[in-house]
Amino acid sequence: MATLTFLGAVGEVTGSRYRLDTDHGSLLLECGLHQGGRDASRQNRHSFTRELKGLKAVVVSHGHLDHSGMLPKLVRDGWRGPIWCTPETCELLTIMLEDSANVMAHDIAWENKWRQRAGKPLIEPLYDLDDVRHTLKLCKGVPYGEPFHPLNGTTVVFRDAGHILGSAIVEINVESGGRERQLVFSGDLGNAESALMRDPQVVESADHVLLESTYGNRDHRPMQETVDEFAQVLEEADRDGGNVLIPAFAVGRTQEILYHLGMLHHQGRLKQQSVFLDSPMGLKVTELYTRRRARLDPDDLEPLDNYANGRVADYLPILQITRSPEESMAINRITGGAIIIAGAGMCEGGRIRHHFKYNLWRRDAHVVIVGFQARGTLGRKLVDGMRRVKLLGVDVAVQAKIHTIGGFSAHAGQSQLLDWAARFKTRPQFHLVHGEPEAREALAAALKQRLDTEAHLPGYGETMTI
């Protein structure tokens, strides 16, 4: 009998990892980084030695680090087999994992300086660039809809999840107990109202469904209302004379925010005359989105193509790219009137922290939170109203206005999750993952009310028979 063990993203949003054991070997579904707080750091240092026993293949739904960020650690611990994903995810992993290794090396070097002064043992990064290069050589890209066989007796198909470029719903058909069973992992299901991405594909058959529940307890505002709210915040910031800081995930969120800024600019609704993309990784991903625009939603691209006469470079002509640290630091001499988009999305690292240091204490500054903030992260603390934070060794008062605009989320809201779940013609068992406790419990209650089905809330380390 095939079994599935839940090794991450249960009762939390990050750290996605599940192990499928069959008569022909084991498959690791996802290998994600835990994000947020000291406990995440401890979990990320977990050795994969035991999990490597019997492992024959790794399958990854998409390139976000909470789903793929531990792949180089898996390789460092001894993995040498294939890593299956979509071709676009292969390209994103090249960008994201290299950046992750570089950021990690910088952060570890910084921490080891005070450790050495304090006489404490030095620490090593989870992985380095060599581990990333070995990881990328193992990646095998398979387009949507093409079956492949990572194990004997197991067939996998990727479907478009509509979340970010290359994101996939993972269908797994596996021989179990003398018959075929179908396991479907939703991955991160996209918000159908988000710009650029196509709608998540419908899956109609499954025995078991691992369903994400990030926004299982709420819906997003309609997109037009969200864009209007965004425009109002930018107008308020223009009246106040301060800068606008937008911490944004380099993949997906940055491209969507640039899209809406471009639309507002061409509609004459954007007062600011300087937009900085201060994210080297965000720039690389944006260039990849441009090369892969055939994978994007043509209905969303058409209006900008009309405004810009088909020239991508004219989508947002006031955009300025900062590539070097010196160019990034120069932005901090601007005390007002600029929109600054920088990573990281949950404010746990990257250049946004430097801009916070120079702006959070200003009463005329505005911070626009446009993505989910996991518990324990700096972004979550700002959303929850913390009035003083520590940034780069300095205590900073939070006097800027904090705005949360959840409608830009690339995740499906509760109603969208329910609509997708309702399209199954079979009656699968739903297992809710990728959600904090209140979100999972709310989605379970909604599934019971709408579909009359009892959803399972798995715990860490729990194993079930497929």
Describe the protein's topology.
Layout: E1 3-8, E2 17-22, E3 25-29, H1 38-44, E4 55-59, H2 65-68, H3 71-76, E5 83-85, H4 87-117, H5 129-138, E6 139-141, E7 148-151, E8 154-160, E9 168-176, E10 179-185, E11 208-212, H6 223-240, E12 244-247, H7 253-266, E13 274-278, H8 280-291, H9 298-307, E14 319-321, H10 325-331, E15 338-342, H11 352-359, E16 366-369, H12 378-383, E17 388-391, E18 394-397, E19 401-404, H13 414-422, E20 429-433, H14 437-451, E21 463-465
Parallel strand pairs: 3-4, 4-5, 5-6, 10-11, 11-20, 12-15, 12-16, 13-14, 13-15, 16-19
Antiparallel strand pairs: 1-2, 1-21, 2-3, 7-8, 8-9, 9-10, 17-18
Helix pairs in contact: 4-5, 4-8, 13-14
